[in-house]
Amino acid sequence: MAPRVLISDALSPAAVQIFKDRGIEVDFQPALGKDKDKLAEIIGNYDGLAIRSATKVTPKILANATRLKVVGRAGIGVDNVDIPAATAKGVIVMNTPFGNSITTAEHAIAMMFALAREIPAADASTQAGKWEKNRFMGVELTAKTLGIIGCGNIGSIVADRAIGLKMKVIAFDPFLSPERAKDIGVEKVELDDLLARADVITLHTPLTDKTRNVLSAEAIAKTKKGVRIVNCARGGLVDEAALAQALESGHVAGAAFDVFITEPATENPLFGYPNVICTPHLGASTTEAQENVALQVAEQMSDYLLRGAISNAVNFPSITAEEAPKLKPFIELAEKLGSFAGQLTDTDIQTVRITYDGAVAGLKIKALTSAAVAGLLRPALADINVVSAPSIAKERGIVVEETTREIAGDYESLITLTVITEKMERSISGTVFADGRPRIVDIKGIKVDAEFAPSMLYVTNEDRPGFVGRFASLLGDAGLNIATFALGRDRQGGDAIALVEVDGKVPAELVDKVQQLPSVKQAKPLAF
Ligand SMILES: NC(=O)c1ccc[n+]([C@@H]2O[C@H](COP(=O)([O-])OP(=O)(O)OC[C@H]3O[C@@H](n4cnc5c(N)ncnc54)[C@H](O)[C@@H]3O)[C@@H](O)[C@H]2O)c1
Ligand SMILES: O=C(O)[C@H](O)COP(=O)(O)O
């Protein structure tokens, strides 16, 4: 069945065409994002959801999203998506981190000019027939100091444009390296220094617990009298009420805001001041940027839904379209090794150790580890998948350790999964043969050679004569046909393992009977 995607925001129709061209069914309902009840009602019909900032992907929406595999944000900020809830549900969240950066940087520069020359007010006055030539006295930007808070993709483009305008650019960004600052021609400063020196301050950070109210009343009080403030990043970076007071007192000469604490902003403490300019979250709204982000998100979502390739996901490592087919059989192996161990482990798991030997060590092991953990926990938690597994393991206090050794041993690639509980430590190893099928090659240090089958019986016993005959008779008496039979032992008369593939489900009574055979230590049905 072809995957189905819902576009619930005003994306460029270019996205619709991409989905169609890739063979994906698409519903384009650009106003639906604002109707959360309707969205919750229909989201269960879709494998993918493409959004901008109007659609809020809440736990309630996700709870109804039974088929959803991917949320694609045609833009940068994913603060309208509950990432932990999406991850817990196994939904990939991806964005397009660069497609609208230039456009947004240009909006910030436009806002700075509009503030410096009071263009909106002058326009309104002129068109009202007033010709107030003496009312509007602007400031020149050349040689002024621009303070950038957050000098990432957009901040550094703003810096580049401002340098072109002959401004002095200073930046506060704890993650900006001195080398990068030098490369882009900005002076890296501390926040207080920026506040004291900047004639114009522009914000370009995401909204996090650390950046919320980065321009608080206290910070605004430290700014230069006559400062102008531009926010084209996120509402909440500036304390709007404190800024309104500073505008009132004349300490701040003007403010230009594209983003607000509450959006859509129909009322706001900043509204009504003559020296405030507001736009309705238009930073990314140019034909070019919207085309970029729509095309990119549709390509990324299609690649994931059709080929398992992951790019720009905020909750999973990237997997390219070339890597995806190489990873696929090892993801299956890792998940099945995890499942094997999970079906045999009844007590609380403390640690999972996964070792990658040989060629597999060169692949994206994060994805393989996630698959192994998903397989391991699935017997206890049916809904888990590779996306949600790491966070669920963390939540349960399970330590996940990974080791890679690129030198191959007996096999070109080998994955060994070790589960440690309070009472025991159990390891199982597997590989992928040339036919692409995963095999079990070692259980608890005992060599075996078996495929993972839909119905299996796993038996550990003491290596004594007579076991195989009695065991096979019990299966025969129960009318259960043996498809394959793998045996292994650590030494003559030591510990032995039988891994048997059978046609049909293993009845519980049969498991009890096998368990009672002399020399049997454990009998357990397994399903893959
Ligand atoms: N108005 C719009 O329409 C619009 C459009 C695009 C992006 N945005 C927003 O613009 C913002 C910046 O986007 P970007 O693509 O440049 O992001 P980015 O991740 O490239 O850059 C963000 C920068 O902020 C810095 N930062 C993080 N925490 C900080 C802190 N505590 N103090 C100072 N700096 C800090 C980071 O180190 C990084 O360099 C985001 O909030 C994004 O959502 C808005
Ligand atoms: O984070 C972003 O990309 C911007 O805020 C743009 O949001 P929009 O797509 O709703 O215009």
Shape: elongated
Show unreliable segments.
none
State the helix count: 17
Largest sheet: 7 strands, parallel
Number of strands: 22
Bound molecules: nicotinamide-adenine-dinucleotide, 3-phosphoglyceric acid
Cα-to-Cα separation, first versus last residue: 23 Å
Physical arrangement of strands within the biggest beta sheet: 8-7-6-9-10-11-12
The fraction of residues assigned to DSSP E strands is 15-25%
Function: Catalyzes the reversible oxidation of 3-phospho-D-glycerate to 3-phosphonooxypyruvate, the first step of the phosphorylated L-serine biosynthesis pathway. Also catalyzes the reversible oxidation of 2-hydroxyglutarate to 2-oxoglutarate.
Keywords: Amino-acid biosynthesis, NAD, Oxidoreductase, Serine biosynthesis
Enzyme class: oxidoreductase
Pathway: Amino-acid biosynthesis; L-serine biosynthesis; L-serine from 3-phospho-D-glycerate: step 1/3
Question: Can you give a write-up of this model?
Answer:
Pathway: Amino-acid biosynthesis; L-serine biosynthesis; L-serine from 3-phospho-D-glycerate: step 1/3. Catalyzes the reversible oxidation of 3-phospho-D-glycerate to 3-phosphonooxypyruvate, the first step of the phosphorylated L-serine biosynthesis pathway. Also catalyzes the reversible oxidation of 2-hydroxyglutarate to 2-oxoglutarate. 34% of the residues lie in helices and 24% in strands. The chain is of the alpha/beta class and 528 residues long. Strands 8-7-6-9-10-11-12 form a 7-stranded parallel sheet, sandwiched between helices. Strands 14-13-15-16-17-18 form a 6-stranded mixed sheet, covered by helices on one side. Strands 2-1-3-4-5 form a 5-stranded parallel sheet. α1 runs parallel beside α12, α5 crosses α7 and α13 packs parallel to α14. It is elongated, with a radius of gyration of 31 Å. The model has no long low-confidence stretch (mean pLDDT 95). The site of nicotinamide-adenine-dinucleotide (NAD) has 29 residues, from α5 and α7.
